[in-house]
Amino acid sequence: MSILIKLYNWYICVIKNNMLNLILFGKPGSGKGTQASLIKNKYNLVHISTGDVFRKNMSNKTDLGMLAKGYMEKGELVPDEVTVNMLKEELEYHLPCEGFIFDGFPRTSYQAEKLDALLTKYSLNIHLTIALDVDNETLIKRLLNRGKSSGRADDQSEDKINKRLQEYDKKTKPLIEFYTKQNKYKSINGIGEMDAITARIVNLLDNYLNDRG
Ligand code: AMP
């Protein structure tokens, strides 16, 4: 696509203010990836999962993948600056588009602030942060199960899962306040049949879009 057409499309998106930029939020195993894949087509959104991008880099043995591997296998977060640079590249690659679902990003206050700054640079913003609420006991069962079929190293032991849950409590949970203050935070029950959870998200999004007009 020529740069002029790209710029024109982006301009139209911003002027019509019809983008929808979402964050799917929640603890590891809360279903963010599954739900993002289910709703992206309905709203024509680009799904960016930072975990997936890291895993792809790991299997391609890129420098980024090799760096991320050590942190991921221990259940720790990849350093902020590395993650933000990667996210910036992904976002800019996909612009212009009708909107984004960010899955697994942001995970720290630093990342949230950088995301706001990056979007502002393109006259964009986050519209909604939707959290999938699931209790720890259910999450641990889900992740251990997923570990059996996916082979994901960080889903293999309860110790690694607990480490990820601790990282969430320490570094990611404060974002609830960050987005609540911006009046953008909504949460739904993330337990139940997959379709029922999708319907809860769709209901929330449709109400938001109706109100926006
Ligand atoms: P996920 O697939 O979202 O569960 O992420 C798997 C792992 O990738 C996490 O435990 C982190 O090690 C790393 N990761 C994914 N997203 C981020 C992020 N936004 N910041 C730092 N590390 C991340």
What topology emerges from the helices and strands here?
Layout: H1 3-16, E1 22-25, H2 32-43, E2 46-49, H3 50-59, H4 63-74, H5 80-94, E3 100-103, H6 109-121, E4 128-133, H7 136-150, H8 158-172, H9 175-181, E5 185-189, H10 194-212
Parallel strand pairs: 1-3, 1-4, 2-3, 4-5
Helix pairs in contact: 2-10, 3-4, 5-6, 7-8
Bound molecules: adenosine monophosphate.
Description:
This protein has ten helices and five strands. α2 (32-43) crosses α10, α3 packs across α4 and α5 (80-94) runs parallel beside α6 (109-121). The protein has 213 residues and is of the alpha/beta class. It has a domain at 20-47 and 101-206: P-loop containing nucleotide triphosphate hydrolases (Rossmann fold), CATH 3.40.50.300. Helices cover 62% and strands 11% of the residues. The chain has a five-stranded parallel β-sheet, with helices on both faces. The protein has helices at residues 3-16, 32-43, 50-59, 63-74, 80-94, 109-121, 136-150, 158-172, 175-181, 194-212; strands at residues 22-25, 46-49, 100-103, 128-133, 185-189.
List keywords for this structure.
213 residues, alpha/beta, Rossmann fold, five-stranded parallel beta sheet, 10 helices, globular, binds adenosine monophosphate
